[in-house]
Structure prediction request, 504 residues.
Amino acid sequence: MSLLGVDVGTSGCKAAVFSINGRCLSSAYREYTPERPRPGRAQLDSQLVWDKVKQVISQVAVAAGKDKPVAMSVSSIGEAFIPVSADREILGPAILSFDTRGSQYSQALVREFGLKNFYRINCNLPGPHLSLPKLLWIREHQPQLYRKADYFLLWADLVNFLLGAEPVTTNSLASRTLLFDFSRQDWSEPLLSWSGLDREKLARIVPAGKVVGKIAPSLTEELNLPGGLLLVSGGHDQCLNALGCGAIAPGKLVCGLGTYECLAPVYSPLADPLKLLPEKLNMENHVVPGLVVSFLYHQAGLLVRWFRDTFASSESASADIYRRLNQEIPEQPTGLFVLPHFEPPQWPVYVKETAGVILGLKTTTSRGEILKAIMEGTSFYFLKGMASLKRLGIPVKECLASGGGASSDAWLQIHADIFGFPFTRPRVTEAGLAGCAMLAGLACGLYGSFSEAAALFIQEEKTFYPDARRHRIYQEKYEIFQKIYSAVKPLLTAMAEPKIRKSQ
Prediction:
C-alpha cells in the first residue's frame, strides 16, 4: 500500500510514490519548454504536458512494485488554465503567468471596480499574470474557443479531471483566478458580474484533501495503476510545498526553490486583510484548515536554467550538470550585481517594461561567479518583502527550504548569508509531492491528523547557518542593489517600448 503525489510546474512535471510511513519509493521527472509563439506570449502545449504527466505516473507506479498506491493528489502552478470539454478533450494551450496578454483587463478591473473594493473580496493584487485577464482575452480574441470550452481548469484540477474525477477546484487554486471570494469561500458574484464570464465554465470549489472521484478504468492499464485508486483534491503548489515541509502551524516560512522562488509565511488569518494591501501582499488559504499563506515570489530556477543553457549548453545533457556547476561557485560574495528581471516581475508589482541586468563583468569573471550572482540577485529581491512581514507582525520563527533548487548547498548558504537566519532542508526536497501524498493519506483515513502525517513524512537533513562576515558584506551589497533598478529603469522602459507596441 502506498500514496501517489503529482506536481505540474511551468517547466516540468514530477511524480513520486511514498510508503504510508513517509518513505519515497520511486520518483520521476519530465521536462518541457514553454512555447513562445510571439513576443510577450508564453504558453504550454497542454496535450504535451498531459502526456508527460502520464509518463511520470506510469514510471513511478511500475517502480513501486507491489506497493501500489491507493490514493493520489496533485499540486500545480496557479493561474494557468486549460480549456477542456465535458467529455475530457483538451481544447487549447495553457497561457502562463508571464504571458503579457490581458493587461488591459487588469487595469480596467482596478479602475472600474476599485483596488480596495476588489481586495476586500479576493485578497489578491490584480495583475495580468493571474487568470481573469487572460480569460477575458480569450473570450474577446478567441470567441470560438471560449464557447466550445465547457470548463477552464487549472492544472491540478485538469489532471484529476482527465483521470476520471468530477470538475472541481480547491480554494487555494481558485484564489489565483481573481474570481474567488475569500470570506465566502466560493466564486464571487460581484466579480463574475463585472467580468461577464460564465460561472458554469468554472469548476465547483471544494477544500483540499477531499475524495473527488476514482481513476477511470480505461486508464489503469496505461498508467500501471490499480482500479479504484482514489483521486483527492490537491491545490496550489506552494501550499502543498508548505505542507510537505511541515509548515502546519503559524511562524514557519517556506522557501520553495523551483522555476520560481516563492517565500510563503504560514500564519493565522488577519482580522483586517486590508492591512496587507499597502505591503503588496496577498492572503490565500493554506491546504491546512484555519491557516493562510502569503506569497513573495520571483523567477529563480528559470534563471539558473537559462544560465545552464547559455553558459553550459554543451554539458547540459549530463545528469549531474547542476552539481558540477555548483562546484564552480566561489565561497565569498561576488562583485557582480544581477537584476533578476529576465521575465516581467509579477510581485510586488507586475512590470513588463524591464529586463535583466548583469552589472560588474570583467574579463576575469568566471561562469561560477555569474551563477552565484544570479542566486544572490534572486535572494536580494525578497528582502523588502521580509521587512513587510516584520512590520505586519507576521512571525517568522523558522525557514524551511524545498524544491529542486533546495538540493544546492551553495544556494541555500547564499540565502542564509543574505537573510541572516538559518535555512533548513528536509530529507525530501520535493516537498510538494510529499504534501500531495500526505493529503491523499489523510483523505482515505490512513492518518488521523496533519501532525501525525508530518511526523512520518518530514525529517530534517541539513541546516545552513549564516556567516556573520558574509552577512555584513551582503548588507552593504544590498544597499547598492536597491539603487540599481531605480538607476536603469528609464533605460529599460525605453528599450521595451517598441517591443511592447509590436506585441499588443
Observations:
- The chain has a mean pLDDT of 93.
- Residues 2-245 form a domain with the Nucleotidyltransferase; domain 5 fold (CATH 3.30.420.40).
- The chain is about 40% helix and 20% strand.
- The first strand starts at residue 2 and ends at 8.
